[in-house]
Specification:
The chain has 4 helices and 9 strands; from the N terminus they run βββαβαββαβαββ. With 167 residues, it is an alpha/beta fold. Helix 1 links the parallel strand 3 and strand 4. Helix 1 (32-43) crosses helix 4 (139-157).
Length: 167
């Protein structure tokens, strides 16, 4: 993976921001998205809206059309440098076999095409290890969650921050 430090992104902690926590806390580390938004809610500093989701659905395109910014937080199977990855989510008409489980880039695309709204969109992927049917996350997932939260809280407190994006 190449890093690109030349992009400067603006993120504002405002009521115009929506964060989706995607996952299922009944499947071990798949609950990382929910754990992330629960931690943000507990901290009490975030001004926007937090929504847990098992999966993204076509209706979420309409929902994000009402926001200036949207962040999709989800668990990731595989290796991520530092245990998490923050990146821009660009609209893409990704093929899907169902309208009941869509990728974030497809939701952004549908929002643009159907509602002519263009919220800034980002994904925050957090590395997990185990997806068994069980409640509770692995220690690795918990540590990666802490790293992602530290990053987000730092990002959340600075209006303009140069980020290293995975290209």
């Amino acid at each position: 993976m190449n890093k690109n430090k030349s992009k400067v992104q603006t993120f504002e902690n405002s009521a115009g921001t929506l964060i989706f926590g995607i996952g299922n806390n009944g499947r071990c580390d798949d609950g990382l998205g929910w754990a992330f938004i629960n931690s943000i809610k507990k901290d009490g500093f975030f001004k926007g809206k937090l929504l847990p989701r098992y999966q993204l659905q076509i209706e979420d395109a309409e929902r994000i059309s009402h926001f200036d910014q949207v962040i999709f937080v989800d668990a990731y199977k595989g290796d991520l440098e530092n245990g998490f990855e923050w990146k821009e989510c660009e609209a893409s008409n990704s093929p899907a076999f169902t309208t009941h489980n869509l990728a974030p880039d497809t939701i952004v695309y549908l929002c643009q095409e159907l509602y002519h709204k263009f919220p800034k969109a980002y994904t925050l992927l957090i590395q997990g290890e185990v997806w068994d049917l069980n409640i509770g996350m692995t220690s690795t997932a918990q540590e990666n969650l802490r790293k992602a939260l530290r990053f987000f809280n730092r990002f959340n407190s600075i209006k303009n921050l140069e980020l290293e994006l995975m290209a």
